Amino acid sequence: MNLKELYQEIILDHGKNPRNLRKTDNFNKDAKGYNPLCGDKVHVYLKLNENKKVEDISFEGSGCAISMASASIMTDLVRGKEEIEVKEIVSDFLDMIKEKNELSNKILKDDEKTKLMCLSGVKKYPMRVKCATLSWHTLTSALENSQITINTEN
Amino acid sequence: MNLKELYQEIILDHGKNPRNLRKTDNFNKDAKGYNPLCGDKVHVYLKLNENKKVEDISFEGSGCAISMASASIMTDLVRGKEEIEVKEIVSDFLDMIKEKNELSNKILKDDEKTKLMCLSGVKKYPMRVKCATLSWHTLTSALENSQITINTEN
Amino acid sequence: MNVSDTKKEFPIFDNKVHNNDLIYLDSANSSQKPRVVIDRIYDFYTKEFSNVGRSVHYLAIAATNLYENTRVSVQKYINALDKNEIVFTKGATEAINLVANTFGQKYLEEGDEVLLTELEHHSNYVPWHFLRKSKNIKIEFAEINNDGDITLDSIEKKITNKTKIICVTHLSNVTGAILPIKDIAKLAHSKGIPILIDGCQGAPHLKLDMQDLDCDFYAISGHKMYGPTGIGILYAKKKWLDELPPYQGGGGMIKEVNKNVISYGDLPNKYEAGTMATAQVIAFNESIKFLEKIGIDNIEKHEKELLNYATEILGNNNSINIVGNPKNKGGVISFTIEGVHPHDIATILDEDGVAIRAGHHCCQILHQKLGLPATARVSFGVYNTKEDIDQLDKSIEKCKNIFNLK
Amino acid sequence: MNVSDTKKEFPIFDNKVHNNDLIYLDSANSSQKPRVVIDRIYDFYTKEFSNVGRSVHYLAIAATNLYENTRVSVQKYINALDKNEIVFTKGATEAINLVANTFGQKYLEEGDEVLLTELEHHSNYVPWHFLRKSKNIKIEFAEINNDGDITLDSIEKKITNKTKIICVTHLSNVTGAILPIKDIAKLAHSKGIPILIDGCQGAPHLKLDMQDLDCDFYAISGHKMYGPTGIGILYAKKKWLDELPPYQGGGGMIKEVNKNVISYGDLPNKYEAGTMATAQVIAFNESIKFLEKIGIDNIEKHEKELLNYATEILGNNNSINIVGNPKNKGGVISFTIEGVHPHDIATILDEDGVAIRAGHHCCQILHQKLGLPATARVSFGVYNTKEDIDQLDKSIEKCKNIFNLK
Ligand SMILES: Cc1ncc(COP(=O)(O)O)c(C=O)c1O
Ligand SMILES: Cc1ncc(COP(=O)(O)O)c(C=O)c1O
């Protein structure tokens, strides 16, 4: 049953008790994401240190279980990574959600990848893909310091 | 065949050589008629004398055989009539075109009525009824001295 | 026609969704179409198609007559005085834009006020917002009370001597509140203010009598009224249509055109520029006949029963919070479940074939006021049954199970 | 598909008109619909209907995908760079109104000039006239030459440093003249002026390549392109759609709404307020596929053959005067018969099942210039054959007989 794959325990857990749902003190990068059709909102805050390493990452926002869990898992996994690694993880995740069957990056550990793969259940729910990817697109935008609000409608 | 009824010789004759296609000198009533969809135009001029009798009536304009013949026959028939008689003829004609099978006024002579009945062929051509009635509506408007351009669209 | 049999008239219900029967509870979004309407479109295109009004050949004459017949049917259905008070548009949104644009052009000046309510759909707010930007007018919002209701009082409070038009929904697409339109019209007219009704949710479900309501403008969506997409209706009192300028310019709406001046056609042409949605207008006549056959009284009764039944069932569910409790309510229930986001509810219900809507329903002002980013909404049409609500109830239970709720 | 067989694809031709076969020569007014398009509408309403974009249930997702598929098909068909350069409207008239309104708001000021041609349809004149009234701009008309043609030269002559936009038809719906769009675009762009093409008659009959034509705006009518009524397309270069303000306001076109400010959605939503003509857009995909299957080169060739054949036959008839003699001509012939008014011609032809149009064809400027109050017009579509023209010829003879002409 697809629903069981979509709403795995780990998703429900992160959805209900999202990690890193706060605002990083002295963040130096941030971006907002918005899905105008369903009203999901996310604001991602990053603190990169002088070595371009993610010293802290957090988010604020509201949304469905999928979007909250996705943001929660994402922030957990990229903390401590270098900027260039973060970008690789993001693009690997987005590729996986769009077309690939697995993650291919060499940065995350196997158990971390397993955690991330829990989000792959949305692939059967095209309208919910946006929920899973909103925070990731927003993270990219924060890294690029672009001023545009990310809009997953398009 | 309906077409033969529509385009009787008398219609073709009046359509080709419309009587009273000119502008009455010293007219004291006039009105314009217009059919915006097909572009038919008519301008009716009247000279009523002090006894409210039609001393002269004429028209200018362009249009199809039906509309030209109708204006031509109309102007022929109402010349010399009293205003009140003209109104009766007009409403009798319009009733005939719309629903009745014959003319019931007591003003026109039988041969005049026969002439007028030649226009009844349009009854089978709903889109052409407007062509036959445009000049008549315009005559009414001239008598009422209304400033509105008659529009047979409605 | 017996209202309990109407499901059979809708071919869509012969189809399965995820191997389940379709339980369609999203009619406030768009209604399904009865066979008579679909067949009419088919027949028109296969046997009778032509553009209207412009040619004098057989098909064109027939199409023109059919097109105008719908105007008369609508006139009668809503009890308008004149068939030319019926303007065809592409939807209710366009109908409201038409009024905002032309009324704004002619009557609104800097500092003037337009009075809306907090219940309004974006389609009855954004067109007025355009005037706020272009003409520097002000927009005021009558406030909802704790029940999610708009009272006459809340409207009266916001009327000033600058208020130039009052624009309110007939039936809220979120709380289901039915507004006291007749009283609002009386109040407004006593102060010389015209009123516009967003009738999107009113038209398919309530008796429409323009003489009784006495509103100046009433906007209708065809596709929510068992009609095709791409057609809407603006009812407006003739004096407004005579006085206001045209909205769109093009073929069919003119009288005479030359290089320096243009004169506009009479009603109804003045507001129907270009080739209209001919087939849709013609098929919409079948929607009206369909509604007439069932009878609006029967529809109101049927939907009230469904509403009561659903309210009882959902109300008995501890996890469910129904949004608003208006005195007079139509067949719309918005709700939230503590601990489950509306989008997750919608996805889980969909797996059982139960189609509902989740989101802000184009009513962000209201959701902000309620402090809710989104709600789940069920809404009824003639084809719904109590069994549909039983299935809804079961699927909501499933939803709670998945989210480990009691 | 062989173009000579296409008549069979159109169910309308199974019907009789006044007991005669239908000879449809009024495609410039509106085209007939192939079975694939009609069936698609039927199937969509009976099996798949839902509103697009707003709900997350199964039917809504499917409808949204189908709707967006049409956008991509249109993009490819006209070779636009980006699918978001395709805006769905209710018709070409609305598309032109959209541009006139938004471009006018943003870029036109008192004294500015808009350059049209004497060939323009009212739909490409009245929307600009509105700006003449509201903004005090000027409208100039490039003049036709003796052949009823618009040359590059006649456009160049009227360009001044006040010219802000040039709006021309692709193919005249009266003389059939095909305008040198590519050259006009080059000329205009060399002076920094954008151009809008009224593509109503171009789109169904000519190869469309937005990169080659390089126009800024291109307006299309779905119903003239073998598609349903109630749908049109505005192609616009992305930079314009990004820069111009929205046209209609309502649900679906917003980003965030609160009581004081509203932000608008990104493309394509920004210009698609309210519920769109969902079924029509979805079915229009079949029109595009139908055209692609035949191939636009084959269509151009077929219609050119018909044009040549008809021109020869009508040209041999002494009583007939063909209007205009443009160098490059599409499948439209307007004519007059000395001594028979066009409306009488149309009525007499109709009795034989031959459907043509008579009147000013929404081109009063041109008819004034030609000194003709009305003309008769035959226009071709993929389904026409040489036999149709033979019947036309016979019926014209009958017409002359009735009017006692030689
Ligand atoms: C050249 C031209 N422009 C514009 C239009 C208007 O198109 P529509 O009526 O589909 O909006 C037409 C069709 O009547 C046309 O032939
Ligand atoms: C209350 C209300 N107003 C306006 C609209 C807009 O109607 P449409 O999208 O048919 O133009 C809707 C439907 O979404 C509605 O529910």
Structural key phrases:
heterotetramer, A: 154 residues, alpha+beta, Sufe protein. Chain: A, four-stranded mixed β-sheet, 16% strand, globular, C: 406 residues, alpha/beta, Aspartate Aminotransferase, domain 1, Aspartate Aminotransferase, domain 2, binds pyridoxal-5'-phosphate
Q: How would you portray this structure in words?
A:
The complex is a heterotetramer, with two copies of chain A (154 residues) and two copies of chain C (406 residues). With 154 residues, chain A is of the alpha+beta class. Chain A is built from six helices and four strands; from the N terminus they run ααβββααααβ. Chain A has one domain (3-151): Alpha-Beta Complex (Sufe protein. Chain: A), CATH 3.90.1010. In chain A, helix 2 (9-16) crosses helix 3, helix 3 (65-78) packs parallel to helix 6 (126-143) and helix 4 (83-98) packs antiparallel against helix 6 (126-143). Chain C is of the alpha/beta class. Chain C folds into two domains: 3-26 and 295-402, Aspartate Aminotransferase, domain 1 (Alpha-Beta Complex), CATH 3.90.1150; 38-292, Type I PLP-dependent aspartate aminotransferase-like (Major domain) (Aspartate Aminotransferase, domain 2, 3-Layer(aba) Sandwich), CATH 3.40.640. Chain C has helices at residues 35-48, 58-78, 92-107, 126-135, 152-158, 181-190, 210-213, 238-243, 278-294, 296-315, 342-351, 364-370, 386-402; strands at residues 16-17, 20-21, 23-24, 86-89, 113-117, 138-142, 163-169, 195-198, 217-221, 232-236, 254-257, 262-264, 320-322, 332-337, 354-355, 357-359, 375-379. In chain C, the strands form five sheets. A seven-stranded mixed β-sheet of chain C has the order 4-10-9-8-7-5-6, with helices on both faces. In chain C, helix 1 (35-48) runs antiparallel to helix 9, helix 3 (92-107) packs parallel to helix 4 (126-135) and helix 11 packs across helix 13. Chains in contact: A-C, A-D, B-C, B-D, C-D. Chains A and C meet through helix 1, helix 2, helix 3 and helix 6 of A and helix 11 of C. One pyridoxal-5'-phosphate sits between chains D (28, 91-93, 121, 123-124, 169, 173, 198, 200-201, 221, 223, 362) and C (251, 274-275).
